[in-house]
Specification:
- By secondary structure, the protein is α+β, with helices and mostly antiparallel strands.
- The protein is about 35% helix and about 20% strand.
- It has 6 domains: about 55 residues, Helix hairpin bin (Helix Hairpins, Orthogonal Bundle); about 240 residues, D-amino Acid Aminotransferase, Chain A, domain 1 (2-Layer Sandwich); about 100 residues, Nucleic acid-binding proteins (OB fold (Dihydrolipoamide Acetyltransferase, E2P)); about 70 residues, Orthogonal Bundle (DNA polymerase, domain 1), CATH 1.10.150.20; about 70 residues, Orthogonal Bundle (DNA polymerase, domain 1); about 70 residues, Rossmann fold (3-Layer(aba) Sandwich).
- Strands 12, 13, 14, 15, 16, 17 and 18 form a 7-stranded antiparallel beta sheet that branches. Strands 2-11-10-3-9 form a 5-stranded mixed beta sheet, with helices on both faces.
- The longest helix is centred in the N-terminal third of the chain and has 24 residues.
- It binds 2-(butylsulfanyl)adenosine (IVH).
- The site of 2-(butylsulfanyl)adenosine has 14 residues, from strand 3, strand 8 and strand 11.
Length: about 675
């Protein structure tokens, strides 16, 4: 009897995973929604009644495909930044010299840590109790995964010593290599989709809807940095780490303090050789200036700290056969060739496709179908073909793959806009392949962020001719979705709600979503902040754009071309008619807590570098002036404040100390 139940459970798991795979990955479902639901229901019931066959790899325990789960959002106490990378000792030397120069050539202590190939997470302890766990998200706002974080075996729920009132520390959640293999094996047993690498496995296991699954996934955590800390101060990164150890955290064994470039380089070489012996994946080393005071002096770019750098280990390479070259049409019409490869294992992943960049690259590398090629998976995820290792037995070795004359999607003529350009394009504005990519970009997370409106949904809607222009997204109705595979009432309602919500996104997001050539996320934000509404952009000329410090000629010309294009006018008009917001709201322009309030800083600050305090005030919408007057709203007084403080008292200006300042900026959870 038990055997029968067991084999039925195994059979159902395999079958459901196969259908998930057909639906989500192959876009080719074989059964109806109802048929699929019946299988899931039967499996759920059998698992409920027979808990001895419980398995975290069961499809009933996983969030499948693109359907994201509903985590709450958490605003980080300060942004979770990333790190700049170097790929050679030469580049590391340059960074080292720059640091030495900036810190006036004194002997500098460096803390070197392995760069763990996991997924970053933030843990907040309030009075020593683990209160919040969050993913990195977009760096500003992450997902609330507190319950899942609590399931990670080496994360203390209560600190052994709990001095800090507020302690936000950050680190990497990862899975050991052997646990990763085992997990994949378990998943494979049911013909499920394997995780491509330990990082994906850690991330997938952390973002489970059921924390019990996370508990079974053998995740670990290493602490490496911090956000805000109130009630405790550290002098050095190494002190911070030691303190974390005393609090009950586990630290990496391979940590080293170095005082010279030579020492750093020799530790790098040690670790390159040791890399494969570690029980977890590392993809480089993080070199940090140890003194936290120096962190303040060196500061940050808007993406990463200047006081640290990630030295990435040499890329992993392997050889395989290039079976076929095919072409794809991108969002802007660029035609890119890519290589279909004989599947090969590389850095823990099976690679069956690689980029060939452009058609000149094919000629330069003398690549033909059938050749054995060297492929590389460098710092980025897309593998590339490095060179030909052995020619294949092709008839004509000197004839290389030519760019297509007509677009594979719409049959329009392919052109090279000018001889200097390497890219070939389909310039048909109505090309379906471009439109498809444009829709995907428009709805993407960093653009209009329409959750659930992914490739599979877009493809089905296009097939059914429900969308012809961008604005059609906003006319989609219940009936358009309910007919799609796996769409039932709840999912349909959720997606309709997500579409409606996206109408309110600020102008900056809309600008990015429109996919204007050369205009990325940052530029979109800057432009939206300056021009405030779409109308102003239509009226702007090139000089109005170049007046903005960050906007150069190429971007300005691209913007002008875009906004003088008649079809763009119609596009925007159609979006306005659907109620899409065309304004950059004040609150998105700057966190305006200090709404034009005037600050004067005086004396020596201890918790903040002066520059950091100034930046904070400005970021929150305030202004900083040098001298005190009646117009001054606040005077931030540090140690040994002198004349300005006296004058402020005379003029009855509100005087605040650093603690009060911290209180002001942290109220309502606003970040610096
Ligand atoms: S320090 C401002 N130390 O690498 C960021 N990061 O590529 C300070 N990472 O987002 C981070 N190991 O999630 C630091 N020993 C380590 C690390 C580490 C892995 C991750 C981290 C960061 C990413 C940047």
């Amino acid at each position: 009897m038990q055997e029968n139940i067991k084999s039925r459970i195994y059979y159902l798991r395999k079958k459901i995973l196969r259908h998930n795979n057909l639906y989500y990955d192959k876009n080719n479902p074989e059964i109806s929604d109802g048929g699929y639901d019946n299988l899931v229901k039967e499996l759920e019931q059998l698992e409920r009644e027979n808990p001895i066959f419980d398995s975290s790899a069961s499809p009933t325990q996983q969030v499948s495909g693109f359907v994201s789960s509903s985590f709450e959002q958490i605003k980080h106490s300060s942004p979770m930044l990333s790190l700049d990378n170097t790929y050679s000792q030469e580049e590391t030397k340059k960074w080292y010299n720059k640091i030495e120069k900036s810190l006036n050539n004194k002997t500098i202590e460096f803390a070197i840590e392995p760069k763990i190939d996991g997924v970053s997470a933030s843990l907040t302890y309030i009075n020593g109790i683990l209160t919040v766990g969050a993913t990195r998200g977009d760096g500003e706002v992450g997902e609330d995964i507190t319950e899942n974080i609590k399931m990670i075996q080496n994360i203390p729920h209560k600190l052994k010593i709990y001095n800090p009132r507020f302690f936000e520390l950050r680190g990497e959640v990862y899975i050991n290599k052997t646990d990763f293999e085992e997990l994949n094996e378990e998943i494979l047993n049911f013909e499920g989709q394997k995780f491509a690498n330990p990082r994906n496995a850690a991330s997938g296991s952390l973002r489970q809807k059921n924390p019990q699954i996370t508990a079974k996934r053998k995740l670990n955590f290493f602490v490496h940095s911090f956000g805000k800390i109130y009630g405790k101060q550290f002098q050095k990164q190494s002190d911070f780490l030691q303190y974390c150890k005393d609090c009950g955290f586990q630290l990496q064994d391979d940590f080293k303090i170095c005082y010279s470039l030579e020492e750093i380089e020799s530790f790098m070489n040690v670790m390159i050789n040791k890399r494969d012996l570690l029980s977890y994946e590392i993809d480089g080393l993080v070199i940090k200036v140890n003194s936290l005071q120096s962190h303040q002096e060196l500061g940050y770019t808007n993406k990463s700290p200047r006081w640290a750098i990630a030295f990435k280990f040499p890329a992993k390479q392997t050889t395989t056969i290039l079976n076929k070259i095919c072409v794809q049409v991108g969002r802007t019409g660029i035609i890119t060739p890519s290589a279909i490869l004989e599947p090969a294992a590389l850095a823990g992943v099976t690679i069956s496709r690689a980029t060939l960049h452009n058609f000149d690259e094919i000629k330069r590398l003398k690549i033909n179908e059938g050749d054995t090629v060297l492929i590389e998976r460098a710092g980025d995820v897309i593998p590339k073909v490095v060179k030909v290792i052995k020619k294949g037995v092709t008839a004509s070795k000197d004839i290389f793959f030519e760019p297509p004359k007509i677009c594979p999607s719409c049959n329009s003529k392919i052109v090279k806009e000018n001889e200097k350009e390497v890219a070939y394009r389909c310039i048909n504005p109505e090309c379906p392949a471009q439109f498809r990519r444009h829709l995907i970009h428009f709805a993407g997370r960093n653009a209009m962020d329409i959750e659930g409106f992914g490739e599979a949904v877009i493809d089905q809607l296009l097939e059914r001719e429900r969308i012809q222009i961008l604005a059609d997204i906003y006319y989609l109705s219940y009936d358009d979705f309910i007919g799609l595979d796996l769409f039932k009432e709840k999912k349909t309602d959720k997606l309709l709600e997500a579409i409606a919500v996206s109408k309110k996104r600020p102008l900056s997001k809309l600008l990015f979503a429109l996919g204007i050539r050369h205009i990325g996320e940052k530029a979109s934000e800057i432009i939206a902040k300056k021009f405030k509404n779409m109308n102003a952009l239509f009226n702007a000329n090139i000089e109005d754009f170049t007046k903005i410090h960050e906007i150069g000629n190429v971007l300005a010309v691209s913007l002008k071309n875009f906004f003088t294009n008649e079809s763009v006018y119609h596009l925007i008009d159609s979006l306005i008619k659907t109620g899409v917001n065309m304004i950059e709201p004040e609150s998105a322009q700057a966190d305006d807590k200090f709404n034009n309030k005037i600050f004067v800083l005086t004396g020596e600050l201890t918790n903040f570098a002066r520059e950091q305090a100034v930046k904070t005030i400005k970021a929150l919408g305030g202004k900083v002036t040098a001298s005190v007057s009646k117009k001054t709203d606040y005077i931030l007084a540090g140690i040994n404040a002198g004349l300005k403080l006296k004058k402020a008292k005379e003029l009855n200006v509100k005087i605040i100390n650093e603690t009060e300042f911290e209180g002001l900026i942290s109220k309502n959870n606003n970040s610096i």
